[in-house]
Design a protein that fits this description.
By secondary structure, this protein is α+β, with helices and mostly antiparallel strands. The protein has 9 helices and 7 strands. The strands form 2 sheets. Strands 1-7-2-6 form a 4-stranded antiparallel β-sheet, with helices on one face. A 3-stranded antiparallel β-sheet has the order 3-5-4. GO terms for molecular function: 3 iron, 4 sulfur cluster binding; glutamate synthase activity; metal ion binding.
């Protein structure tokens, strides 16, 4: 919830420092034990996170896991295709139910235009009783979307374009703009491989808030957790970690220069992976200006590199 630039404060020069941990089964075996150990690791990182003057409004906490396919098949009321043939993710939407519904409809249109179709939406079960007023006041509406129509990297690339278009075209408030970012359309993740639960929470609040994380049917072979200490950055729901491909600990003090160079290089981007030159333009700006922290910018760059096929990272 960043205020406007005032006095010596300028949101363009914010940086942050945090705590991160990972638990993984080296043989790729999904289990509840991995999820539980990751959450335990997160709880042990509470000293690396922070809260404001109101101790129940955290700077941020989250977990990245594999898409919990078996669990999702039991909790949705529509049929899902084979694992890896659908993309899913939680959408952070406007607080107003009317605006949230309009945003969902707009996302569906973008998905159709990009070659995927929305199978359905799921209301994400949450419990905000442990949250402080600041965190609750900024809390978005949560809806989980399911999209199909491709598989493998084709699915990942189309989901990437849909997410970029949704966040660019449907609007995202960021540091220095009016309000706490309530009119946001933001996807912590949208993939057929990985799934993120995160928010403006303390480390103990993550599992208490997202009821899915309390369900023993939710399993994964990996868990990446993050406890955020927003050193010089104001907390918000979208800026919690993990991001879609990274969870970052520390500060990148050259972030402004890095972003400027990335923007300059956009004119040189040439690829047939996303289609025509006009299709490539949908991805710009690669670094979303209003979600501006060093890890957020690095996240934007890393996602682009990965879906373009230049980064071999894969979670199966």
């Amino acid at each position: 919830m960043a205020p406007k630039r005032v006095g010596l404060y300028n949101p363009a020069f914010e940086h942050d420092s945090c705590g991160v941990a990972m638990v993984v089964d080296m043989h790729g075996r999904r289990s509840r034990d991995i999820v539980d150990k990751a959450i335990t690791a997160l709880l042990n990182l509470e000293h690396r996170g922070a809260a404001g003057a109101e101790p129940r409004s955290g700077d941020g906490a989250g977990i990245l896991i594999q898409v919990p396919d078996a669990f999702l098949r039991e909790v949705v009321d529509f049929e899902l295709p084979a694992p890896g043939s659908y993309a899913t993710g939680i959408a952070f939407l406007p607080q107003s139910s009317k605006d949230a519904s309009a945003a969902c409809a707009a996302v569906e249109k973008i998905a159709e235009a990009e070659g995927l179709h929305v199978l359905g939406w799921r209301n994400v079960p949450t419990d905000d009783s442990s949250l402080g007023a600041l965190s609750r006041d900024a809390m978005p509406t949560f809806r989980q979307v399911f999209m199909a129509g491709a598989s493998g990297m084709t699915l990942e690339r189309r989901a990437y374009v849909i997410r970029k278009r949704a966040e660019h075209e449907l609007g995202t408030k960021g540091p220095g703009q009016d309000g706490p970012g309530r009119e946001t359309v933001y996807f912590p993740s949208l993939s057929g491989q990985t799934f993120v639960y995160k928010g403006m929470l303390t480390t103990p609040q993550l599992k208490a808030f997202y009821l899915d994380l309390q369900d023993d049917r939710l399993t994964s072979a990996l868990g990446i957790v993050h406890s955020r200490f927003s050193t010089n950055t104001f907390p918000s729901w979208p800026l919690a970690h993990p991001f879609r491909r990274i969870a970052h600990n520390g500060e990148i003090n050259t972030v402004t220069g890095n972003e400027n160079w990335m923007r300059a290089r956009e004119a040189l981007v040439k690829t047939d992976i996303f289609g025509s030159e006009a299709d490539v333009q949908k991805l710009f700006p690669i670094c979303t200006p209003v979600l501006r922290t060093p890890p957020a910018s690095m996240r934007s760059w890393s996602c682009c590199i990965w879906v373009a096929g230049a980064w071999p990272t894969r979670c199966s």
